Amino acid sequence: MFLPLNERQFEFWQLRRDGMAGADIARSFSVSRQSVSKSLQSMDSKVSRVMMEMAQSNHIEVKKVNFERGVLFGRSVQLNTDAIIFISAKHGMQVWYRHKGDCGKCNHSHECEKLLQDYAGEMEISLTKSESPSEMADELFRKLEDIL
Predict the structure, then answer these.
(1) List of residues 6+ apart from 132 with CB closer than 8 A
(2) Long-range contacts of 67-70 (CB under 8 A, 24+ apart)
(3) Three-state DSSP class for 83?
(4) How far apart are CA 38 and CA 48, in angstroms?
(5) pLDDT band for position 4 (cuts 50, 70, 90)
(6) Helices H, strands E: what count in the chain?
(7) What is the C-alpha separation between 5 and 87, in angstroms, rounded?
(8) Residue pLDDT, tens place only, 83-134
(9) How far apart are CA 146 and CA 132, in angstroms?
(10) Geometric angle at alpha carbon 56, from 39 and 135, rounded to 5°
């Protein structure tokens, strides 16, 4: 399961995810619209394949998916909880399981907080200040689901 995060195709995909039109992407890179279109079609295929493979390998039943935005909402069969698979330009493909943990006692709390803040920034979603990454995630993914 691999996405080429440093290739031009991914850069085009990310710009489109951020709202830039294909013609504007083509102008920015001095390439044809057809070149951008082919690259985006190829990247959409890769994103959909990799996200579905990730869901399958993590036993996540797909509920809602938006490949152009790089987000999949589902339910973990094994853990009996909601799961979100998303693509971050900075952190790559991520799987997040909804949980109510004691984040204050976790050694990874700051890493989770950074990941969520970075992804919220990429998606232009503002979050209220929270003490717990699990609360941040609930807010982030609720807002994300609302806009998809």
Answers:
(1) 103, 104
(2) 68/16, 68/17, 68/44, 69/17, 69/123, 69/148, 70/13, 70/17
(3) strand
(4) 15
(5) low
(6) 5, 4
(7) 10
(8) 999 999 899 899 999 988 778 888 988 999 999 999 999 999 999 988 789 9
(9) 21
(10) 90
Q: Tokens 């330009």 correspond to what residue?
A: 89
Which tokens hold the place of 19?
A: 């709202």
Rg (the chain; Cα; Å): 16
The two three-digit tokens of residue 69, written as one number = 């935005």
Residue with structure tokens 């709202």?
19
pTM: 0.88
**Predicted confidence (pLDDT) per residue in 31-84, tens digit:** 999 999 999 999 999 999 999 999 999 999 999 999 999 999 999 999 999 999
